Amino acid sequence: xxxxxxxxxxxxxxxxxxYDASCASSGTAKRDSAGQSKGIGSTExxxxxxxxxxDGRCISLLKILLTNACVFDCHYCINRKSSNxxxxxxxxxxxxxxxxxxxxxxYIEGLFLSxxxxxxxxxxxxxxxxxxxxxxxxxQFRGYIHLKTIPxxxxxxxxxxxxxxxxxxxxxxxxxxxxxxxxxxxxSTARIEDAMAGMKASIEDGGDAMRRxxxxxxxxxxxxxTQMIVGADAASDRDIVGxxxxxxxxxxxxxxxxxxxxxxxxxxxxxPLRRPPLxxxxxxxxADWMTRFYGFRAAEVAQATDEQGMLPLDIxxxxxxxxxxxxxxxxxxxxxxxxxxxxxxxxxxxxVDGIIASRRWxxxxxxxxxxxxxxxxxxxxxxxxxxxxxxxxxxRIDLRTKLTEQLELFx
Length: 411
Ligand code: SF4
Description:
Strand order of the largest sheet: 1-2-3-4-5-6-7
CATH architecture of the largest domain: Alpha-Beta Barrel
Protein name: Putative DNA modification/repair radical SAM protein
Pfam family, one: Radical_SAM
InterPro entries: Aldolase_TIM (IPR013785), DNA_rSAM_put (IPR023874), Elp3/MiaA/NifB-like_rSAM (IPR006638), Endo/Exo/Phosphatase_dom_1 (IPR051675), rSAM (IPR007197), rSAM_sf (IPR058240), RuvA_2-like (IPR010994)
Number of domains: 2
Keywords: Iron, Iron-sulfur, Metal-binding, S-adenosyl-L-methionine
Strand content: 5-15%
GO molecular function, one term: iron-sulfur cluster binding
Bound molecules: iron/sulfur cluster
């Protein structure tokens, strides 16, 4: 590897880290004030991303790889062994120094560290753990640390990562076993899931110990998360929602992140040539929300998919589900229990809590519900209020078209 300075390494390794969705801030237009253009600031700089701390605060993290060199050859990855990219590698000490320098200047509140695999999974994991250990023990660093762990590494090393990090993640990578076999033949779903199971047990033990003894050491208090690549293989949305739900249930994950596959330079011929629509990723996050906060089971979300198992792109999955299950509506907002209100398209958790609090004092009208929700157009066919009942609206064959038109009209 050619000798390059830390700034050049940062450029390469922050750019390489942007493919990890686990703490991504996306959707920003490209703007730059460098050179001849006017103004100040740039949205193109790499290296700082935003994530949410366990208490809900938005925090900025230095997001980098330890190295983008890798001995594995996962087809979908720009850093794979056979990829023709410029390589760089930080030492553990360099990452520690950079983190502290950025932290002292108030640029960041923490570190997100991942890595390609150098020499072996254990060696790489040792380096990652050494960064977190040194920050915590040598420098008393109290900021947020999110470490990507390598499932093939010695469980003792993964455990050590959990002792120093706030959050750890182990990527499942692809939604199906067959997809992983085809696109990342050196990885194994069984080994990934074993590592997740080990992490879950350690997080639970750590939580128990903290409840009993105030001085017990913290163990990954922000839990574990994972990431799935969407659109690199033939897995349908139904498969993806099913896999995510199983992972939440079995391993107590805090989050599953969905990352729309993006074609990479010098791509392997087994990959699709085009990325899936970004809206697909968005719909999957909405479906994920349905299972985590609205009480839907994965099998119910699957009712919103078409014959190919895909969620519609033009309407959100909760509305698609309601259109399929019209017999469950309308729901009387003045009487229905919380779990039924959460199933109404257009009513989020905050709106439902607002309805439940307000109806203690009076019967709610359509206008009252309109003030608590964002989209009365979406709601009207599905609710009953003191002054509104959708006569046969829910039975209309053209309800989907009507709603789509109205939602477009009201933006
Ligand atoms: S192991 Fe990770 S870094 Fe290496 S090729 Fe696979 S996905 Fe990329």
